[in-house]
Model the fold of this input.
Amino acid sequence: MADAWSGKLDTYLDGELSANEMRDLDAHLRNCPSCAADVLSRLQIKRAVRSAGKRYSSSPEFRERIRKSIASKPRLSPMRMWLRATAAVALLLIAGFVTMSVRQQQLQRQHTFSELADLHVSTLASANPLDVLSSDRHTVKPWFQGKIPFTFNLPELQNSEFTLIGGRVIYLGQTPGAELIYQIRKHQISVFIFPERAVGHDLGSSSSSQEKLSFNIETWDWDGLRYFVIGDASTNDIHNLAEMLKKAS
Amino acid sequence: MTATFEELAMPLFDQLYNFAHWLAQDRTEAEDLVQETYAKALKGFSSFRAGTNFRAWMYRILRNTFLTSRTGLKASAMVALDSDDAPELAAGPETPETLFIEHSQRQALQTAIESLPVHFREVLLLCEVEEMSYQEIAETLSIPLGTVMSRLSRARKALRLILQEKLVRT
Done:
């Protein structure tokens, strides 16, 4: 009888016998000391293996690393998704607007410089380029009185290579302004002075220079007036004249 | 609401790590094994059918990952030499269990489990430590129920034999 059960003792302890077999074996164990002792020793080793088998534990860092690697991403609520989409669209619109506005500013700037280059060329090409012909700034400056809605100062040219040739009234954006012609060696340079509003857009508050149609240009604003120095002289000459004008104003 | 992968998988972490370490016998390898198991399971979670045994599924992934690892390939090569049809190992006339309990050497038992071939070690651990049912073990190891029972029986006998030899030597 005991032999019939001996092969099933582990299965009994694992709780895997059928209900009927369990009941029968329970009954047998009460009457068979040898099988009961066998079951006991198997139960003890089973418990010992269970305890000894729980041997390894991971580091908390590794556990955390795994947890992070599988952490479920919080789903976005419809409201949050909507906000996110709106923000994205708004950002695109702003970026587009900024690009357009920068581009617009560049175009306006180019347009102004082209117009000034044209004015400079037409002055030089004209048979009677100037309304007032004088190398004396104290003659030229007063001449503009009443002809333009602002006044300005002109630099002392002694000890410089520049010569004042004269000036005339000129219009930019339907606003009257002053054009002064200076000469350095064989080059003639135009200095344009307009109220800032004549330009109508921002050309930059600091002094900036660039080349346009092979002319060198330097521009800045001062006390509500916008100055341009333009000519085919070197950038150095243009710059020097610009600096003298800045000091005088 | 359906449980997320994290909610189902993280409670199994400690057991899975312990099992992985028993299989690989090395901390770094065990970590790699667990990491790969979680990554594979996360990837395949969408194909996991609700209602099936998630624990058995996780252990199956871990075990398959182990078997295809370098250590696993080496260990499983021994399975062929010791097929399930082989005659059962005979347990000695002494009762090593009693002797063992008397000595109560936990470490000796651990060394004995370690020295078991991997297919014995895993079935024993799944049954005794993870307290899986035979059916769960069959799912985890992808073997028939009958094979679970015979393999488990032979694993236990092998363990007793190792303990017996150990105790005879001491």
Observations:
- The beta strands of chain A are 132-133, 162-172, 175-184, 187-195, 208-212, 215-222, 225-231.
- The longest strand of chain A covers residues 162-172.
